[in-house]
Amino acid sequence: MATFKKIEVVGTSSKSVADAIKSAVASASKSVRNVSWFEVAEIRGAVKGGEVSEFQVTVRLGFKVES
Amino acid sequence: MATFKKIEVVGTSSKSVADAIKSAVASASKSVRNVSWFEVAEIRGAVKGGEVSEFQVTVRLGFKVES
Amino acid sequence: MATFKKIEVVGTSSKSVADAIKSAVASASKSVRNVSWFEVAEIRGAVKGGEVSEFQVTVRLGFKVES
Amino acid sequence: MATFKKIEVVGTSSKSVADAIKSAVASASKSVRNVSWFEVAEIRGAVKGGEVSEFQVTVRLGFKVES
Amino acid sequence: MATFKKIEVVGTSSKSVADAIKSAVASASKSVRNVSWFEVAEIRGAVKGGEVSEFQVTVRLGFKVES
Amino acid sequence: MATFKKIEVVGTSSKSVADAIKSAVASASKSVRNVSWFEVAEIRGAVKGGEVSEFQVTVRLGFKVES
Amino acid sequence: MATFKKIEVVGTSSKSVADAIKSAVASASKSVRNVSWFEVAEIRGAVKGGEVSEFQVTVRLGFKVES
Amino acid sequence: MATFKKIEVVGTSSKSVADAIKSAVASASKSVRNVSWFEVAEIRGAVKGGEVSEFQVTVRLGFKVES
Amino acid sequence: MATFKKIEVVGTSSKSVADAIKSAVASASKSVRNVSWFEVAEIRGAVKGGEVSEFQVTVRLGFKVES
Amino acid sequence: MATFKKIEVVGTSSKSVADAIKSAVASASKSVRNVSWFEVAEIRGAVKGGEVSEFQVTVRLGFKVES
Amino acid sequence: MATFKKIEVVGTSSKSVADAIKSAVASASKSVRNVSWFEVAEIRGAVKGGEVSEFQVTVRLGFKVES
Amino acid sequence: MATFKKIEVVGTSSKSVADAIKSAVASASKSVRNVSWFEVAEIRGAVKGGEVSEFQVTVRLGFKVES
User: Fold this and answer.
1) ipTM value > 0.95
2) Residue D6 is nearest to which of E13, E30, E58, comparing CB atoms?
3) How many domains does chain C divide into?
4) L1: which of G45, H1, H14, L27 is 20 to 30 A away, CA to CA?
5) What is the CATH number of the domain that holds L23?
């Protein structure tokens, strides 16, 4: 039966949590084919001058291992 | 004194985490009256063609049990 | 070497998770200088009339202790 | 073999943690037969005028599913 | 978009963990249509006479809410 | 919108868990206005001469930040 | 320097969480000398006839190892 | 009222998770009377030559303390 | 001294948890040499027609990094 | 009875985990009297040029609230 | 196949985390033969006069049960 | 915006926790450029002849993905 692999990627965005997730998925998809799901593991970010400058979202990405 | 119940619902959205939460709340409110709070338990989602196709957010919804 | 302190703040927003985080950061920055990062500890919120009325996001804020 | 179901109920009491648990169990037993155990998932509460006004205890209640 | 609900069921078996999961799923499917996934939350069991007499596996079952 | 802060306080009591929580809330309310909820984070205690001498309950207290 | 050991004991009581903890400590102190602290690991219990029949509290007990 | 003790045992098996649990229970029952339940705390194992050579399952075993 | 790496793989099986673990290990061993242990991180699966159709077990696999 | 407060401080050191803890304690003790215990919540750090440049250890510090 | 037992021991040291672990292992090895691994469960300690006076590290020690 | 990847590496040392972390970082930096932070996920180790023979520290290493 099928086997999947999970990798952890941290996406960043200055706008939103969803944007940081999308960025992580898009970036990983350049080198990994077949990403089919994500799981959010951690949400954190950077602050500059009293304002959020960056959302940093760690996602685990799952993709099918080609046999 | 009052008693509350919690149920777990997974809301989905192609746009954002907040949208998926709103969708879960709105959908549950069709059959459950008096939902008064939510707690996010898990954020995950589906990926298609190298892009996020769906945010899936599990929320616990709390509502008052009518006696 | 440097020492940092972490405090826990709950930001609220009627719009989104990101907005609630931004609100927590902005509010804390009025009394604390040098906030440099945040970590999301909990996402929950209030529901009224079958709709999400408020996102409540607990963030831990880290800032440098001035010696 | 037997199957059980678990539901989450929040009991409240102005007196004690035990009382809030008892309240949750008693309330749920009005609509669910055969509750046979509970597991405390969370203890929290409300404060008014500098004093605890309510203990809120989330319990998971287990009961046999009648086949 | 679609909404899902999760319920917690404890399946039991004298043989194996997998069997207890199958039992939970089969039992819940009598009253809930469209169960589409499970998540194991806890594995425990009973012992009698120095031997395992029962595996008790708590699973969260997810199913689509029909609108 | 409103912002809240959480602080961690350890209340103690020789009698009960509820008493230790009440003690933490009462003590903190001397210096912090507007405490509106608590969350129990840890329950532990001291033993002397084979008997419980003190319940020590760590609670997170939430209160509104005045702007 | 000193070394301590921790053991896990489940105390029971029909009355309260504090009572179950006290029972665990008193019972363990019959065979273990020098118990000096406890940590609550789990609170659960039994239900009979729609009422709580027993609080079952798992505590980790710490005591000095005599060298 | 009754008091119980919990001990942690790691059972091993080359065949299955259930088998490793059974092995832990059977082994502990040689020296401890009255084991009445188990809770799985961890599932791991050894790999040799690209195949699982051993399942290692940590179980907490609960038994009544004789007074 | 030696260094090890851990990767996360999801094995699947229609039969049992142990089988899904074995499948993950066997599949990963095709591309990674020296896998020497596994740790189960999550057990979940798919349901079709009221029956478990697939066990999906996430395992972390540890192997020696060749220097 | 006595009440304690817990604050979170991140100590840093280029040498060791223990050193980072000591640094956090020493730094906090400049402004807080009566710190009597610490609990490690997180160990992380920075890397530069392929080597650990800084250990960052988050500790919760407990101290008696003077009444 | 082999069975192992795990016990929890708290080692202490005025110097470092590693030293506290070594102390726990050495102390337990006086009464338990065949300790073969440890797992750190908690790192905490005492503070006196604004300085760390003791590291207290809880370790789970695993050893083979002789049959 | 930037994307980061996290990998899990187990460093070992016969001397200390810090040394095992340094070893993990140094070893991974041979094949991965730009490692910029680490997070400790687990501390365990091996025991031989009643003494700690090896500290085994699992660290998650974060590094920038070059686009």
Assistant:
1) yes
2) E58
3) 1
4) L27
5) 3.30.1660.10
